[in-house]
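Consider the tokenized backbone below.
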């Protein structure tokens, strides 16, 4: 078998005839469905409960619409730009319209499952990543602008980053010039979406009335339910990134659980210490921050290291959301940057600190990372990968916002924002569970 590039140890070469393993394929199809579950209903309910009552339907609609839009974009061109043979920065055009993508495995990525399954699994990552950004501009962007922005973003930002980190021959892949560890998407998914979310929040400006008027979540029961669905779906996200049903999937599964649990407790402890009471909102925010931070490390670290990564992420993301954001005054409505941008960056860097081996899923064995010197080199590589994601996501997102703002406008009218987006953008009023 040939191990996927994002799991292949440095200097490790394999050659064998790929063959479909039905157990691996069954696990990957389940993982694919779990990752889709993360967007709808997971993220939709998580975000939907956090906004004001007059905007809940618009937020649910954003996540649902992206499930459809990004599927079309991915089939037409996204998968090809991410995973077809190309250069070090972007894939080629071989798989446009999924030409040549069928039941046979692609040995460069997943030698024991059909390429169609691999493509579908990666599609779900492409769907949830732009959906995360919607949390930053919630309650104030036009629906048409959202569709245009995030459809283009998936091609301009996500596909190149996916190719650089996970694509065969990618610049940041383990076989590339700057080998970067990103087992399941800390850099590709969370840094890019989180940084882009911050750029959106800064470009659009604050919601009317922020921060003078209180804007509390309208239904934390929905958000807690969504967070639970995200937690469950994340096992497909991380353990599924092993691309087989072997020991590596089990290791990533355990690390994911440990990271989320530690972060939920750490965030709750910080909030309890500062405010005197632990909140449901804090607990679920901490859990998501831990899931974000453990994502790049989940296949490379021990359970004890996962606890440390989650604990650090819970404290760091809490400080960003509860203290730094307030001091700086920007309006990241649902803290997409504070949780995903900062959590993803924290996890990416700590992966270099705690990764103990580069596991080869073809053999269920590992190759040592290389002692202290190896860790320092890897930390520098992790820093480089994170910096590339920050710079590219910020620059490209700002350019897309500027273009769309001049073409059709980004922000709804003041009167529409005050009255609510449910009625004004969709002509409907959401069910408020009363």
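A designed sequence for it:
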């Amino acid at each position: 078998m040939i191990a996927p590039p994002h799991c292949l140890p440095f200097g490790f070469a394999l050659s064998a005839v790929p063959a479909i393993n039905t157990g691996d394929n069954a696990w990957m199809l389940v993982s694919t469905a779990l990752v889709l579950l993360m967007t709808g209903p997971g993220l939709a309910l998580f975000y939907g409960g956090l906004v004001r009552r007059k905007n809940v339907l618009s937020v649910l609609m954003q996540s649902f619409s992206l499930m459809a839009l990004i599927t079309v974009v991915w089939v037409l061109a996204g998968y090809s730009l991410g995973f077809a043979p190309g250069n070090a920065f972007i894939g080629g055009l071989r798989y446009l319209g999924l030409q040549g993508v069928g039941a046979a495995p692609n040995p460069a990525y997943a030698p024991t499952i059909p390429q169609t399954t691999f493509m579908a699994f990666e599609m779900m990552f492409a769907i949830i990543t732009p959906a995360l950004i919607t949390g930053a501009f919630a309650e104030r962007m036009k629906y048409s602008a959202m569709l245009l922005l995030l459809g283009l973003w998936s091609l301009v930002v996500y596909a190149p980053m996916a190719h650089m980190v996970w694509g065969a021959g990618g610049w940041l892949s383990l076989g590339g010039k700057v080998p970067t560890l990103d087992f399941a998407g800390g850099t590709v998914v969370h840094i890019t979406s989180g940084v882009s979310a911050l750029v959106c929040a800064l470009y659009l400006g604050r919601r009317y009335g922020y921060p003078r008027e209180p804007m509390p979540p309208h239904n934390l029961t929905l958000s807690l339910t969504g967070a639970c669905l995200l937690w469950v779906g994340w096992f497909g996200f991380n353990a599924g990134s092993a691309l087989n049903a072997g020991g590596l999937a089990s290791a990533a599964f355990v690390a994911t659980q440990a990271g989320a649990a530690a972060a939920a407790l750490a965030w709750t402890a910080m909030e309890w210490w500062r405010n005197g009471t632990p909140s449901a909102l804090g607990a679920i925010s901490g859990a998501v921050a831990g899931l974000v931070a453990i994502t790049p490390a989940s296949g490379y670290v021990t359970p004890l290291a996962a606890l440390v990564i989650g604990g650090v992420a819970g404290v760091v993301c809490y400080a960003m959301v509860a203290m730094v954001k307030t001091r700086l005054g920007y309006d990241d409505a649902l803290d997409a940057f504070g949780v995903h941008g900062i959590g993803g960056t924290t996890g990416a860097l700590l992966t270099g600190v705690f990764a103990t081996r580069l596991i080869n899923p073809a053999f269920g064995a590992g190759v040592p990372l290389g002692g202290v010197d190896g860790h320092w080199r890897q930390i520098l590589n992790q820093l480089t990968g994170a910096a590339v994601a920050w710079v590219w996501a910020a620059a490209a997102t700002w350019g897309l916002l500027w273009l769309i703002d001049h073409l059709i406008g980004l922000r709804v009218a003041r009167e529409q924002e005050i009255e609510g987006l449910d009625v004004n953008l969709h002509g409907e009023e959401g069910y408020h569970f009363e």
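The first strand starts at residue 357 and ends at 360.
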